[in-house]
């Protein structure tokens, strides 16, 4: 027996239409459907527990993503610290100068998605959320390609700014290994802001 294939056009946020007012509402925000008045401490604990569950359901993945993202650079730095001072200097230089420049600009560009998605949701244009996400992926992937020469030519760039020759050479080699991280962040930044 063939399994039923889920519809790809089904929205993730369920919206209902009020027949009387002809307005669209998310099932949680319809007028008159607020929490009932809390009259006892037991009811307060019950509502606080339910609200806490909803908050962790929404915030948990975002917290995990942020911790994973920021610990990536820290873990690299810690492992480089077990090598010589020269390697630690090279990794630090690459992380702060080369990656810091490109990832900072891309994070700023990815932050525009947060505003666009908020406006689309507020205007009840939920179909635009996915469109904005996909456009953001294309734009940031294009930016990754634009930043690729900085990673490829990190050694001459650092030497131009009078960095120590040994550190510049090692940072240039390390930046080549960090190219996949550039493209991974290009896809990750929009998902964080979505």
TrEMBL record:
<feature type="transmembrane region" description="Helical">
    <location>
        <begin position="167"/>
        <end position="187"/>
    </location>
</feature>
<dbReference type="GO" id="GO:0016020">
    <property type="term" value="C:membrane"/>
</dbReference>
<comment type="similarity">
    <text>Belongs to the multi antimicrobial extrusion (MATE) (TC 2.A.66.1) family.</text>
</comment>
<dbReference type="Pfam" id="PF01554">
    <property type="entry name" value="MatE"/>
</dbReference>
<keyword id="KW-1133">Transmembrane helix</keyword>
<feature type="transmembrane region" description="Helical">
    <location>
        <begin position="96"/>
        <end position="116"/>
    </location>
</feature>
<protein>
    <submittedName>
        <fullName>Protein DETOXIFICATION</fullName>
    </submittedName>
</protein>
<keyword id="KW-0812">Transmembrane</keyword>
<dbReference type="GO" id="GO:0042910">
    <property type="term" value="F:xenobiotic transmembrane transporter activity"/>
</dbReference>
<keyword id="KW-0472">Membrane</keyword>
<dbReference type="GO" id="GO:0015297">
    <property type="term" value="F:antiporter activity"/>
</dbReference>
<dbReference type="InterPro" id="IPR002528">
    <property type="entry name" value="MATE_fam"/>
</dbReference>
<feature type="transmembrane region" description="Helical">
    <location>
        <begin position="55"/>
        <end position="76"/>
    </location>
</feature>
<feature type="transmembrane region" description="Helical">
    <location>
        <begin position="137"/>
        <end position="161"/>
    </location>
</feature>
């Amino acid at each position: 027996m063939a399994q039923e294939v889920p519809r790809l056009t089904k929205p993730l946020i369920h919206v209902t239409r009020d027949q009387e007012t002809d307005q669209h509402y998310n099932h949680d925000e319809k007028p008159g459907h607020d929490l009932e008045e809390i009259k006892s401490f037991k009811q307060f604990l019950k509502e606080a527990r339910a609200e806490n569950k909803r908050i962790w359901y929404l915030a948990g993945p975002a917290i995990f993503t942020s911790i994973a993202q920021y610990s990536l650079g820290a873990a690299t730095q810690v492992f480089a610290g077990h090598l010589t001072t020269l390697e630690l200097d090279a990794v630090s230089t690459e992380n702060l100068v080369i990656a810091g420049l490109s990832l900072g600009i891309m994070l700023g560009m990815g932050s525009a998605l947060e505003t666009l998605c908020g406006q689309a949701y507020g205007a009840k244009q939920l179909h635009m959320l996915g469109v904005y996400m996909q456009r953001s992926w294309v734009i940031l992937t294009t930016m990754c390609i634009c930043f690729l020469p900085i990673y490829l030519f990190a050694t001459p760039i650092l030497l131009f700014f009078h960095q120590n020759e040994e550190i510049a050479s090692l940072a240039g080699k390390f930046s080549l290994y960090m190219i996949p991280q550039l493209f991974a962040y290009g896809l990750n930044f929009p998902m964080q802001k979505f």
